[in-house]
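Case study 2.
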Amino acid sequence: MTLEQFKKKMKKIPDGPGVYFFLGAKKEVLYIGKATSLRSRVRSYFSPDLAKARGPLLVKMLEKATTIDWRETDSVLEALLLEANLIKSHKPKHNTDLKDDKSWNYIVITKEDFPIIRYVRGRELAMQDPDDYLHTFGPFPHGLQLKAAMKIIRKIFPYRDDKCVPNSGKPCFNRHIGLCPGVCTGEISKTDYRKIIRRITLLFQGKKLELIKSLEKDMKVAAKTEDFEEAARLRGQIFALQHIQDVSLIKDEYRSTGSAVGNTRIEAYDIAHMGGTAVVGVMVVVEDGHPNKDQYRKFKIKTAKGGDDAGSLKEVLTRRLSHDEWPMPRVIAVDGSTAQINAATKVLEEHGIQIPVIGVVKDEKHRPRSIQGKREVIAGRERDILLANAEAHRFAITYHKKLRNPLRGL
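Prediction:
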């Protein structure tokens, strides 16, 4: 699909949330994505630096695409759920090529008297018996946003998790904060809990209107039997569904594409630990010369051995690249020299992504001594690279100290 073809459709593409499709010559679905702003997100695919920003696989997809289609949604949360349902039904080649099946994210509902709703990764799901689950929803490409979405859903429809023991008489932690309906304390029957599960199921299936009608019907029954407390609770759920507060899922599309003309995004990474213990990694972002603290990210190191800074950096970058909803940078800056540069470059190559990696070398007092990497990449960006590196070091040390001393800053 050419830029000229896209421009003809541009005025028709809405500016609100939804799901978009790139279609091939036979109207087959090549790729599915979701967006806070459909117009802004689709526009990003026609920027001159798409290959660097999003990788060669998406460039190949765009070469095959002949048209674009979309579906609007009332919220970003509904776009996220719709995206997963459509990927499951269509299995677009370029979605599956971009991500290993085992790294997808899923939500499962167990087969029990009081079903548990659980977040699982594809590799975990592949090892389990599908008959253990009442429902499986997914795949969800965006793990971080899925977790944020589940927090929103659980506030509307409290449910049981693994830490809740049915009818134990001891309220679980989530019961205290209103996120468990009282399975642990015996306050809710199996029948009423099943209603909650059905409501969550309808929401995940994209049947919001059917869900609202069901809630309205139950609310009228509760009011008729003078169960006014239940009627008020159901009214609150209806209101919440009609006014979904999904600010945590909303991204500024200019920032989230990372490919707008003139946008210079640098991501810097640093590892912090003390003698190989409490190892953490961080990602910070500098855009157009200014720190974008909303997009800073923290990582607890899970697999790399303590003291292996290059291994920890590879783990952080691998986990970062699993979030294709995060913007891609123009430049990646790491704290260190050849070992760190090579570690980061290897991870990028394994993902088919070409982004230049720059290393900031420090002296014995941890002051910048030199910047290593391609001169043409560094030229004109020295200040921004050093700013990003300094922010990464500050952020990593702060996070590390907080883990070592949880009371710090209270």
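The first strand starts at residue 18 and ends at 23.
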